[in-house]
Design a protein that fits this description.
There is one protein chain. Strand 1 and strand 2 form a beta hairpin. The protein is built from 14 helices and 6 strands. The strands form 3 sheets. A two-stranded antiparallel sheet has the order 1-2. A two-stranded antiparallel sheet has the order 3-4. Helix content is 65%, strand content 6%. Helix 7 crosses helix 12 and helix 7 packs antiparallel against helix 13.
Length: 481
Amino acid sequence: MITAVSALSAFELARIQFGFTVSFHIIFPAITIGLGTYLVVLEGLWLATKDTAYRDLYHFWSKVFAINFGMGVVSGLVMAYEFGTNWSHFTAFAGGVTGPLLTYEVLTAFFLEAGFLGVMLFGWNKVGPGLHFFATIMVSLGTLVSANWILASNSWMQTPAGFEIIDGRVVPVDWLKVIFNPSFPYRLAHMVVASQIAVGLFVGASAAWHLLKGRSSPAIRTMFSMAMWLIAVMAPIQILIGDQHGLNTLKYQPAKIAAIEGHWQNTPGQSVPLILFGWPDMAAETTKYALEIPDLGSLVLTHSFDGHIPGLKEFAPEDRPNSTIVFWTFRIMVGLGLLMVVLGFWSLWLRWRERLYSSELFLRFALIMGPAGLIAILAGWFTTEIGRQPWVVYGVMRTQDAVSNHSVLALSISLTAFVVLYFAVFGMGITYMMKVIAQGPDEGGGKHPDPDTDPHLRPARPLSAVDDKIDIPSFPAIRGN
């Protein structure tokens, strides 16, 4: 494998390595953001109604939350080090903005989550219901605060504002403009809603799997019903948010929109068609095999029948994003989003016909759609980050000027090590999580596992919240033994 990656340049290897580690990491915070909100809703409904289905679901999904939280922390630490090791010139140039923003994330979100996580995971039988509910709210709030700071930093790289360049370094002069930069509100809303939808699909697929297995208990039915309500409501809202995000991107990053649409040049007197499918050829400067809908591009992209967007030929070749990639990653994201809308509307129709839990075709569709939210998040992230190229700070610093001076050999070895270790460690973690989900909620007891009575539970780490009932002989390091 080292020989294969060595054929690439050190710059390309550094980009691949960061993209690989971020792609793994982004999955876990997305799940914790969505699950955090879900746990708040479940515990709130339990306190309001005393319906044991909500209590049982809370205990069940808090285990999954604990697993994801642990993997998210570990994978996130790696990226922080990569800024200093692989992207030292970027850190030296823009650290005056990105450094404080990431520090604020640790000082607020991480401490908030860590401070109340123990109470949430291990305090069900220890503290009063009001205090436990407050702890759950604080942990969920911590996930949202974390998303706020991380997206503020990343959005600033997309649409930088509130700074000056003094002696070759970025110096913040207006922190409100730095944080609330032009793309931040749209990106924050888009990501938070995407996380909620991803977890809704994840939860719905879990319930569908149990229903297909013939397990139609009150907790399973409640889980499936709540997930389908969320998809039916949030998927259309996400389309509206995405539309506004697109208009913002057109204003501040027109080259990205041109690349996403595979649009090369405008024809005088003609509106812009919407290219459904095709193959953007960067060398030939055209989109081959294009399947177009006349005039629809203008309506969708500018909300006008005769509006135009800049074509890629209006930008210098060295300033163009790779249209071949972002054209397809964007369509994967949008295509999955449309399937989510179909899933939501179908669920409403079946609910009205009183067949929501019995339609095998629909249950199989919901099961297949389980990973769709996470795949759409990854596709959207690829679209956003690759579409920003060749800039690491849009219009201010090029990516090739941000990379550290490492050899091809060093980066080949580190990339190979990351691939092997990530698939081994996080592969085991994800497998363990899926085994927990396959076990389903325990609807018999009503008590959360207690570390005082169960020697396998050690509140020193999040994974201790998962009881040791699942036989995983090949994963001894993950068990509570």
